[in-house]
Amino acid sequence: MSSLNFMEKLLDGVEIEWKPIGDVGELVRGSGLPKTDFAESGTPAIHYGQIYTHYGLFTSTTKSYVSEKTANKLKKVNHGDVVITNTSENLEDVGTPLVYFGKEQGVIGGHATILRPSNSLLGKYFAYYTQTRIFFKDKRKYAKGAKVVDLSAKDLSKIQVPIPCPDNPEKSLAIQAEIVRILDAFTAMTAELTAELSMRKKQYNYYRDQLLSFEKGEVQWKNLEDIVYFRRGSFPQPYGNSEWFDGKGCMPFVQVADVADFGFTLHKKTKQQISKLAQSKSVFVEKGTVIVSLQGTIGRVAITQYDCYVDRTLAIFTNYKADINKKYFAHQLKAKFDLEKEFARGSTLKTITKEEFSKFQIPIPSIEEQNRIVFLLDKFDTLTTSIKEGLPREIEQRQKQYEYYRDLLLSFPKPDKPTFKESA
């Protein structure tokens, strides 16, 4: 039996009840936990910003710890609980889940909510569901804020989750567990390839840094503001307004998550499309423009391969003042941000301002030398991590495969058909 037929049989005739999150678990809002409370060891601690910058969907260990005295003042997270972000700089990261499988009881800080699942919900099933387009659209309805986007625990509790076989908890959990098993398998395959790609990136970065390094006095050095004009993107507020998205005449809307972590490209399709109405309130960027992320995941650089509109969390570079190869500039920009982001402001949600990076110094050798460096880096890139072949392509294919089966398993119809019932 094929995997597709197996999954169709798994869900064939299964009744689904859409229940608010608040009905399938207890929600506990966290508080406190500044960076100064972190310790080298002690009680495992989860900071909200680390959920979308450090972890995946689940973890058994934590990046940070706090003393027992500090832990006594914080909300406790138990094995199997889900920690969900309430605050972020963008809509993608707010509402991000992390299922905690630590052996020790942990704690959380502010801007995060603990979901303690009832006996009708598996934490990992819920975590995978939050990756679907349906959940994304639902959280967008409730998200509030301009510079900081917030999804309160109260509003989070209203978002509905599909529960199979609601009148038979044992069968419901068995179906959820099988869905999780299938998606875990795809996730594991992608993680293995991603780890290998990470090693390739380290090789590439070492080689890149050797080519891009110059001694003072060897070539001319200029502040970034003396090399190119730049500005930040923009987007109308609030983010949750449905009028700003999709519809006739919509265009790609680039946010940090839409910039690939390697290869100077955007993902082929942005997560969101900006509506015709909102376009005049954003910033249009032509194909072939260099952009860089300034918040959250800092230093993602792309040379846009299609026309788009760009969010305020990215800087846009146009009209060069110096004689410079655009791709050489992109390489230098990436190398500089990789170095400087380690010292960026913020504990877990890092930020580099326009004023700060405008003073970044970039070496400007002759245009012939720039072209030679770009040629060598392009050749090395083709040999090791080409977008058209090799690991990135395989990872992309695995990701598409995972998303296809995830949506097949989790995108249940909303309760507008007689075979489905909605929770009271």
Account of the 3D structure:
The chain is α+β, with helices and mostly antiparallel strands and 424 residues long. The chain is built from 12 helices and 25 strands. It has 2 domains: 19-165, Adenine-n6-DNA-methyltransferase TaqI, Chain A, domain 2 (Alpha-Beta Complex), CATH 3.90.220; 215-364, DNA methylase specificity domains (Adenine-n6-DNA-methyltransferase TaqI, Chain A, domain 2, Alpha-Beta Complex). The chain is globular. The model is unreliable at 417-424 (pLDDT under 50).
Strand-helix topology:
Blueprint: H1 3-11, E1 16-20, E2 25-29, E3 38-39, E4 43-46, H2 48-53, E5 58-59, E6 64-66, H3 68-71, E7 75-77, E8 82-85, E9 87-88, E10 97-100, E11 106-108, E12 112-117, H4 123-129, H5 133-142, E13 149-150, H6 153-156, E14 160-164, H7 169-212, E15 220-223, E16 228-232, E17 251-254, E18 272-274, H8 276-279, E19 283-285, E20 290-293, E21 301-303, E22 308-310, E23 314-320, H9 326-340, H10 354-357, E24 361-364, H11 367-385, H12 391-410, E25 421-422
Parallel strand pairs: 1-25, 4-11, 5-10, 17-22
Antiparallel strand pairs: 1-14, 2-12, 3-6, 4-6, 7-11, 8-10, 8-12, 9-13, 15-24, 16-23, 17-18, 19-22, 20-21, 20-23
Helix pairs in contact: 7-11, 7-12
Shape: globular
Question: Structural class of the helix and strand makeup?
Answer: alpha+beta
- Per DSSP, the total helix count is 12
- Could you name the ranges where pLDDT drops below 50 across 5 or more consecutive residues? 417-424
Q: Cα-atom Rg, whole angstroms?
A: 23 Å
* Helical content band: 25-40%
The termini sit apart by: 38 Å
How much of the residues is beta strand, in percent?
Answer: 15-25%
Largest sheet: 5 strands, mixed
Reading off the top of the CATH hierarchy, the class of the largest domain is best stated as: Alpha Beta
* CATH evolutionary superfamily of the largest domain: DNA methylase specificity domains
In round numbers, the mean pLDDT is 85
Domain unit count: 2
Count the strands?
25
Strand order of the largest sheet: 2-12-8-10-5
Instruction: State the assembly state of the protein chains.
Output: single chain
- Briefly note the CATH topology name of the largest domain: Adenine-n6-DNA-methyltransferase TaqI, Chain A, domain 2
CATH structural architecture of the largest domain? Alpha-Beta Complex
